[in-house]
What we know:
The chain has 17 helices and 13 strands. By secondary structure, it is an alpha/beta fold. Strand 4, helix 4 and strand 5 (111-115) form a beta-alpha-beta unit. The N and C termini lie far apart (55 Å). The site of ligand SAJ has 19 residues, from helix 8.
Amino acid sequence: MKKVCVIGLGYVGLSTACVLASKGFKVIGVDVNQKLVEGLSQANIDPLEPGLAILANSAIKSGNLIPKFSPQEADAFIICVPTPPTEENKADLSYVKTAVKSALPYLRRGNLVILESTVPPGTTKEIVKPILEKNGLKIGNGLCLAYCPERVLPGNILKELVGNDRIIGGIDVESAELAKEIYQSFVEGEIYLTDATTAEMAKLVENSFRDVNIAFANELSRICDKLDLNVWEVVGLANKHPRVNILKPGPGVGGHCVAVDPFFIVEKAPEEAKLIKTTRRVNDSMPDYIVEKVERAVKQAHIKTPIIACLGITYKAETGDLRGSPALNIVRRLREKGYTIRAYDPYVRDFAEFPLFSLEETVKSADCLVLLVDHKEFKGINLHALLKKMRGSLIIDTRGIWLCNEPTHHQSFEDKRHLSSLSSR
Ligand code: SAJ
């Protein structure tokens, strides 16, 4: 196979198109977003993806990556479009269906179609396959179809796209083998072949496991608050066990993956997915819990008109992405309650919803400082120097970056007590 049509140039589609082009494939990169397709030639690409702009530039310069608004005939079609949740937290498959239909006029005997978008189990077989067979071509008789989930971590995409192991789920063995030819051109990790539905489920399970683990950590943080224990120290010590790996408590789970994918399992097995449903409830209850904690702290300190400083509004560290951000959620709720909020995030530019301040302005004469995102810029901050700039001395660290989140041999017991008295989580 020499020519590939990648439909959907989001963070997954674009990086896949660039990597394939760099491996010598002729790649037609298709997106409906005019600015993106035209902008691609100038390659105005997310600066937070190291190396992607350079790779895109060279792919376009080499003539191996051609941005277009519609597909063309090719040997393989890779579909990487969004599958956002509906109001009822079911998968909105409209983008997938539109993308599959857009390829129909260009499909030829011997072609391969690959779906990468995260979908409920059974989608490739029950939804995509019938659409593709509308033109008379039959899967298993001249047409191949596979499901190959991505697992790249935003902010580290290119490295993970190449380095991570890959699952390839064929509608039939021939489809899986043909899809493997595409991915083995750039994947340096292991490639595992399975059927399409198993591959769809494995993808959802990866993120659901992460969601359950985080929910366990978040529940522990509530319990430790009640028992006046430092959850970061408890989790840090428990993780010293060779087979325990509890993730970090936080203000909630954001982004469009871990917070969404578990619902695609619930959609297919609502009765059985009890723990997964509860997990979503626990994680989505954290923003309210943090807002209550802030309110309780300023009330107990009898601060009449508190100024609350919030550090970070993105969904996770070192990204500018605000999608489903619990931090932004918390700032919004505090503002709705009438508090004077000053928020700062080093990764957010041209934010229009409410004014963002510099770090200095955010902290100056604040009564309460709430750390909401564990950006590396905040880890190095000198807490005591910060306190001197504030009017009050309340610090709520929802990410445990200032608390002793890793038990250390040399840190004295007094230090820990002093630190944790400073910053109630
Ligand atoms: N979070 C915590 N505590 C933790 C880890 C994360 O509260 O210990 C929160 C983060 O702050 C964030 C959310 O969870 O709000 C999701 O964070 P994440 O680090 O899981 O990042 P995502 O959603 O960008 O990436 C995940 C990754 N999946 C796994 O690690 C299993 C990535 O590999 C997937 O490709 C991606 O979802 C996806 O696209 O599905």
